[in-house]
Design the sequence.
């Protein structure tokens, strides 16, 4: 299951962001941040209690099913009077959810979380980055394993000289990405792909701000 991986901002930063705001409505998300325990119901209640103790008036709170879904606007309509009373909306979701809600409501929004990466749950409470959305995907030539996110150095040509017995020199508990790629390609009888020199990685990726349009016809 793919999720936006987030972490809560420090108490100091949140206090700074709401320093001149007295009345706050809090919104959590029922998908990604609930799963990562950064913006689900328990965290929303905890934030409500913390801000109340700091002297803020909480006009209301809710956890929308999917904060980044346009339907979140319709759900928020149910709390119209409570939102109208608030100086701002503190949103405990990924950046996608914050921006979605911001577009739908004429209210100042304050993000309570930092969005780290797009990740996949690989074990109970464990999430690994699987894509940085670089716009220059080469996994068709690496056996479906992304070297940019799987390799600590992000090498598109590897392995480096530090791999040891299939382990990464930076994290000895982590399998070397390029050893995994070699093993996968060997199983697929495609080791010739390893001999192809990839172009230097384009760290700029797609021009920003990103835009994608589907051509007519």
Sequence:
């Amino acid at each position: 299951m793919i999720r936006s991986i987030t972490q809560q901002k420090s108490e100091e930063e949140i206090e700074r962001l709401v320093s001149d705001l007295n009345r706050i409505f809090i919104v959590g998300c029922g998908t990604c941040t609930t799963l990562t325990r950064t913006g689900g119901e328990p965290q929303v209640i905890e934030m409500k209690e913390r801000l109340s103790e700091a002297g803020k008036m909480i006009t209301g709170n809710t956890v929308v099913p999917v904060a980044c879904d346009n339907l979140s606007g319709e759900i928020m309509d149910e709390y119209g009077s409570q939102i109208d009373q608030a100086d701002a909306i503190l949103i405990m979701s990924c950046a996608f959810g914050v921006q979605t809600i911001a577009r739908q409501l004429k209210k100042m929004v304050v993000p309570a979380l930092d969005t780290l990466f797009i990740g996949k749950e690989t074990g109970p409470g464990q999430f690994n980055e699987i894509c940085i959305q670089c716009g220059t995907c080469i996994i068709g030539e690496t056996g479906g394993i992304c070297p940019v996110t799987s390799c600590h150095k992000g090498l598109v040509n590897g392995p480096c000289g530090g791999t040891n017995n299939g382990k990464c020199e930076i994290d000895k508990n982590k399998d070397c990405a390029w050893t995994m790629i070699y093993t996968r390609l060997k199983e697929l009888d495609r080791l010739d792909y390893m001999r192809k020199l990839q172009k230097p990685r384009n760290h700029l990726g797609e021009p920003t701000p990103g835009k994608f349009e589907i051509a007519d016809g």
Notes: Residues 132-195 form one domain.
